[in-house]
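Why do we care about 3D structure at all? Because function follows from shape, and shape follows, mostly, from sequence. That is the central idea of this module. The next example makes it concrete: a single protein chain, its amino acid sequence, and then its structure expressed as tokens.
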Amino acid sequence: MAEPNHVAIIMDGNGRWARKRGLPRVIGHREGVESVRIIVKTAREIGIKYLTLYTFSTENWKRPAEEVQTLMNMLEEMLKKETPELNKNRVRINAIGRLDGLYPSARKALEEALTLTKNNDALILTLCLNYGGQSEIVDAVKKIVLEDRKKMLNLDELDEKNFVRYLYDPELPPPDLLIRTGAERRERISNFLLYQIAYAEIYFTRTLWPDFRKKEFLKAIEDFKNRERLFGGI
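And the structure:
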């Protein structure tokens, strides 16, 4: 089997990585950013077309205000620092989620990154920001209801394929491979791409995200290539 076309990653373990070393959680998040940099580069090198990262979930707002502020600041910093290099390497930055809920300065940096890289095609890097799988489905249903009120949809034509048109990014193909890091006693998908991962292969690793670098990523890809995908068939 060839490399997956679309890899999605739940990047878990930054806080635990820092705690194990007696360091502030922010250090774990900063090491996690380095993992993002390496995985994006590796994905582009091996020909993966789509890489989707669970960057900030709707549930992350429940964290202490100071940590939320730190995460928003780091998002802004990362976008400003990394976008020129990503653009040089023809990586297109994409984003899905309730983006209006982001802090204004982070949203502004995101919009600038989206605009600068919009014509690139080597790798589509999708950041899931203020994102939740259930929220996406609810928002899709709201779009359907509003459209139906305007022009009376033929609901007989609304099937699983057409429903995708109402998701945050209808052009984003379903993931072939979903990776969750830091999965010790955490083998769950945490409200991530619930509609899209119906037939994704799922790879759990105990490796914490700050330690998930090129070697671990290639190991996950190799595991995927050794699987037989049946999509409900035999």
